[in-house]
Amino acid sequence: MWEKLKEWRMAGADLTPTERREVLEELFVFGKDNQLPFYKRMAYLLIVSTIIACCGLMADSAAVVIGAMLVAPMMRPVMISAAAITLGWSHYLYQALVLTLTMALSAVGIAALFAQLSPQLIEIPGQVMARTEPTFFDLVIALAAGSGGAYTMTHKESSAIPGVAMAVALLPPLASTGILLVFQENDLALKAFILFFTNFAAMVLAATLTFLYLGISPRKTRTRSARSIRNYLTAFFLLVVGVSIPLYFFSTEVWYDATYKANQTEELQAWLKENELLIDAVQIDEEQRIIFLELLGPNPPLSVETLHNELKRAYFVRTGLEAKPFSIQVLWTQTAEFSWPPVSMDIADERVLEQDYTAGLLGYTWYWVGTQYANGDWLRPKATHIRSYSISPKADASVELNTHCAQGRGSYELSQEDLSTTFDTAVADDCETSKIDSRFITDLNNAINVEIEGDHMILRLGSDIGVMHFQSVLPQ
């Protein structure tokens, strides 16, 4: 197979000696007198382009970041490395790799210093975060760009070089790494650096194969340096393959993240539709087994218990096994929708008469299960006292109230789903549960909305401070 690779070039594609000399003179720096000006030029362009990139990243400006990519001198060491492998010039390859590493570390250092001296940012800009999610597509782009860069170098298509430089982000990931280190986001900084390393390794491999194909090295050179070329190609091939495996799995996480999975869950979608809610964001904590939902909608998600039960039931139907314990935490943001001109009276009447909980509320004793407040805290009766807290609405608009420490009677007003209750029952201060009892009564006086589903009742508290949960039937 290697014998075929040695002869892999376009028919008659070997460059003429003049063409080959021009390409090599453009790529390599020959003579000690020329090296110092070359390194000075590379250092100046690196500093300028890194500063431009930092400004674009921290200002969250994609246009400025693109400008930095055009100025950055990072394409040169990539092409030198590929050409050195093709020609079997180990000395120049090592020089190019050392130059690349020096430039990479310098760019990270310059970016970190710039971020340290800049005004403090409240949050990490989106342009920086965009460099922390390397995917399989980035690897494919780098391979294509490396091949395109090698082609333009041998065919003097100088107008195409800016396009290649823009296609593969070599400098922005390095600048992002330095910025993220200042933010002390070490894991994200590592991902940004992995993006740079992925692009560099893939471009060198693709450019080397393209140079071989186009015949930048004479046939005698390919024959004489076959073993060296093969070893270097194998090394970069293994690097690219090694990087592609974690990139593929990370791509799967990005493409099929928690939000995607949530949108594919029929039970969740049905619950969202029933409650007139939309998903803003989803996170899943696998270790703690917690589903975090950020939801948008006109009404608060009062029936989270229903969703929890539906997801457990769906898991059992799908696997035949009981789901391991998990919890759902919801952050709800209220939305409102207005229009003009007003809707017709008939439609308005349908909206007003949509819910009527009068029949479901009366004739039952509702036992308090607990109250969850907007900050996520719960207030619950002690397990031994759960049957001590209850309300029993009557047809005459009165309510019997029971707590562990007191009994009393109040009143209520119910209009469709709108509810208000009034209690003036006093709780003795020397009772062991006086604080729980007092808060229970206070929350009842703050109820503004009721929702009943089967044997479960939810009272929504004013100012959206929380919800109270009641059951008409408690487990024995």
Describe this structure in words.
The protein has helices spanning 2-6, 17-27, 32-58, 62-71, 75-87, 90-117, 126-129, 136-155, 161-167, 171-182, 186-214, 219-224, 226-255, 258-263, 266-274, 304-319, 345-352, 358-361, 434-445; strands spanning 278-285, 290-297, 327-334, 366-373, 378-379, 390-393, 398-402, 407-415, 418-422, 447-453, 456-461, 466-471. By secondary structure, the chain is α+β, with helices and mostly antiparallel strands. The protein folds into 3 domains: 2-255, no CATH class; 259-338, GMP Synthetase, Chain A, domain 3, CATH 3.30.300; 358-471, Lipocalin (Beta Barrel). Strands 4, 5, 6, 7, 8, 9, 10, 11 and 12 form a 9-stranded antiparallel sheet that branches. The protein has a 3-stranded mixed sheet with strand order 1-2-3. Helix 16 (304-319) links the parallel strand 2 (290-297) and strand 3. Helix 3 (32-58) packs parallel to helix 6 (90-117), helix 6 (90-117) crosses helix 10 (171-182) and helix 11 (186-214) packs across helix 13 (226-255). The relative contact order is 0.07. Mean pLDDT is 79; it is low at 8-12 and 347-353.
Report the portion of residues in β strands. 15-25%
Helix content: 40-55%
Derived from helix and strand composition plus strand pairing, the structural class reads alpha+beta
SS elements, strand count: 12
Q: Overall pLDDT, averaged? A: 79
Radius of gyration: 34 Å
**Domain tally:** 3
Query: Count of helices?
Result: 19
Largest sheet, in brief, is: 9 strands, antiparallel
Q: Tell me, briefly, the overall form.
A: elongated
Give the uncertain stretches in residue-range form: 8-12, 347-353
Q: In angstroms, what separates the terminal alpha carbons?
A: 76 Å
